[in-house]
């Protein structure tokens, strides 16, 4: 990780991540911690970090889809307290998985193309487990 990646990661940690967690709390009605495996996003160059906002948008949208009413908010709160984001260079690793109270999202934001779960895919997966 070079200086540019370190600066961008720090900017996301200090500015964008707290704002993102505040949006999730507004949508869900409770605190959802977002845990990012920073080493998987900074091991390459700035590109994966610059694409993280797309993942944030889809995660916020999935929470909005689930939390359209009190029943959805309560169901989500019973199942998810943390969202863990990991980046992989291998497209085959892309997945969404709920273990205990953590939603694990593995995305592929490296290279010229990228792959991650859309808001609808995440919502469909989580909703089936609520």
TrEMBL record:
Q: Which domain of life, per UniProt?
A: Bacteria
Q: What is this protein called?
A: Uncharacterized protein
The root-end lineage is: Bacteria, Pseudomonadati, Bacteroidota, Flavobacteriia, Flavobacteriales
